[in-house]
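Suppose you are handed only these lines of text.
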Amino acid sequence: MRHKSTILGIAASCLLALSTPLLAAGQATQEALPAAHKPVTAAACTDCHEAESKTHVFHGECTTCHVNAKSHASAESPRKVSPGQPKAEQCLTCHNKDSARLNFKFSDHHRAGVACASCHGVHAPKPVATSLALLKADTPSKLCATCHKDVLAKFNMPSHHPVQEGGVSCVGCHDPHSSKQVSLVSNTEQCLTCHQRIRGPFAFEHVPAAEDCANCHDPHGTPNRRLLVAAQPMLCLQCHALPNNRHGQTGSNATTPTALGQTISGAVLRNCSACHSQVHGSMQDEHLRY
Ligand code: HEC
Ligand code: HEC
Ligand code: HEC
Ligand code: HEC
Ligand code: HEC
Ligand code: HEC
Ligand code: HEC
Ligand code: HEC
Ligand code: HEC
Ligand code: HEC
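From them, the structure of the protein bound to heme C can be written out as follows.
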């Protein structure tokens, strides 16, 4: 039985390469073989699995994906011989054109046991999904949210990227296939593709902004304005001790004397970026004020 599957596989992939309709693959192979060696074709499967035959759209022979189905199909009691589920490798024999997907096996998703078919309904995608990607949900974001509920919840916070409003999608920032972008090696590059205005190079960089936007912003959502991970001034004070020679004041609102006999005014503490407005980097001022 095995050599037949090989012949069928080769014939199918050759014909595929020539973009001939897949069904022709089965017929051509059948003619080339002696009658006694008829391969297991869709017809053999669909005798018992009518539903599936009607719901797979792009793909031809059942056995291109269900590579282990033959002994199942010809068994006396098929129910007892499980053909198993197709793995990513089967899909990738054909879907190997883009490098992101080729590296799928290195992705967090693959390592966590998420398969192509966890996201793509090869047989029965949600009927409303007119998307050619055959997703198992109406939109990519809804698909992601079926598993990442905790992340979705963050988009309900007061400051958030407009994912639920439809302005940005999870896949605008994450590539579900790529190993690189699922683990998000380069957050900053991703952000800058949309937020061009913040792109450097700056004469005076702010080191944490050049390093990683996520130092200060949670890309999903936060209780603080502008997606900040902490409110000002605490955000800044995590890394900066306030140099009181620059910010200290001796005005009438002085209450607690500092070591130098000066105090730091509440107004200064309220909003660092009111003065240091170029918090992402400046062309003119080393103190990031303008
Ligand atoms: C003689 C009838 C028969 C034929 C022919 C047949 N199957 Fe099945 N198949 C079954 C039965 C019975 C089950 C058990 C599950 C069920 O009740 O649907 C099953 C289950 C399956 C499953 C699900 C296994 C699982 O783990 O959930 C797949 C996939 C499958 N068949 C694929 C195929 C393919 C592909 C072919 C053609 C190569 C094929 N079958 C031919 C009867 C058949
Ligand atoms: C493009 C690859 C591909 C092709 C072609 C394909 N299948 Fe499947 N099939 C799958 C995947 C993947 C699953 C797992 C279902 C899931 O998780 O969505 C599956 C599941 C099934 C199941 C189990 C359904 C269930 O509800 O568990 C059956 C039965 C089945 N296929 C039969 C067929 C038959 C019959 C054909 C040919 C007419 C066929 N398949 C063609 C990929 C394919
Ligand atoms: C025998 C080759 C082959 C195999 C194996 C195969 N596919 Fe496909 N697939 C195709 C072809 C051909 C198309 C339609 C043309 C295209 O868009 O590339 C397609 C289309 C698709 C699409 C829609 C793509 C689009 O461009 O919108 C998805 C999603 C898909 N396949 C998923 C899968 C998954 C998941 C598997 C594994 C379970 C799989 N395929 C296995 C050949 C294959
Ligand atoms: C975590 C969910 C997820 C997994 C796992 C996944 N995909 Fe996708 N796939 C998507 C989403 C979402 C899109 C639509 C992307 C978009 O709209 O930009 C897509 C698009 C596609 C397309 C359409 C063409 C394209 O690149 O836009 C193909 C083909 C495809 N996936 C095949 C695969 C194959 C093969 C595997 C397994 C190796 C796989 N996918 C694994 C979510 C997934
Ligand atoms: C079938 C369930 C499932 C779906 C659907 C799914 N994921 Fe995942 N995802 C996981 C699992 C499991 C992990 C690995 C465990 C973890 O870190 O949560 C993971 C990991 C991730 C990671 C890496 C997490 C980390 O800690 O670095 C990102 C990013 C991610 N998924 C984004 C997406 C996006 C975007 C989509 C939609 C296109 C999506 N996922 C769809 C299950 C899923
Ligand atoms: C604006 C870009 C952006 C959008 C939109 C976005 N993400 Fe993320 N996501 C990121 C970045 C950047 C990180 C890494 C954060 C870090 O390094 O601290 C991340 C981290 C993650 C992680 C792993 C860490 C964690 O927080 O659990 C998961 C899972 C994830 N995102 C899923 C999703 C899902 C699901 C959606 C859609 C509902 C989504 N993301 C929308 C940029 C985005
Ligand atoms: C796919 C495009 C896209 C990407 C990628 C993206 N953003 Fe956004 N971002 C938007 C949109 C759209 C808005 C909403 C703009 C508005 O409301 O005017 C926004 C708004 C923001 C805001 C302002 C929120 C507010 O309350 O006003 C911040 C901060 C932000 N993004 C940071 C980031 C960071 C950090 C990253 C990288 C992790 C990132 N963005 C990646 C599209 C994107
Ligand atoms: C050192 C902390 C910090 C880092 C790192 C940082 N930001 Fe910000 N960002 C802020 C603060 C503070 C604000 C709010 C400014 C205000 O409105 O007072 C802000 C506001 C924004 C806004 C909305 C207002 C605007 O200027 O459009 C966007 C978009 C944004 N940041 C994107 C980014 C991107 C992209 C990166 C990475 C290149 C990044 N930020 C890195 C602190 C930071
Ligand atoms: C993750 C740590 C971190 C955070 C958070 C941070 N900074 Fe910085 N900041 C730095 C580093 C590192 C430098 C470079 C220090 C140097 O060159 O001595 C710097 C430099 C600066 C400078 C220029 C120093 C100078 O000599 O004039 C200013 C102004 C500044 N930060 C303001 C802020 C403000 C305002 C915030 C809050 C919105 C903030 N920083 C948040 C790490 C941080
Ligand atoms: C009222 C305007 C104002 C506010 C508000 C303000 N600063 Fe400044 N900051 C300045 C000025 C002015 C300088 C010094 C400029 C100079 O020396 O020419 C400065 C300098 C700095 C420097 C560089 C000091 C050095 O000597 O290297 C840092 C770091 C800094 N500020 C952080 C902060 C932080 C953090 C906050 C919020 C807690 C803050 N600033 C709030 C006006 C302000």
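What can we learn from it? The longest strand covers residues 159-160. The beta strands are 159-160, 204-205, 221-222, 248-249, 263-264, 281-282.
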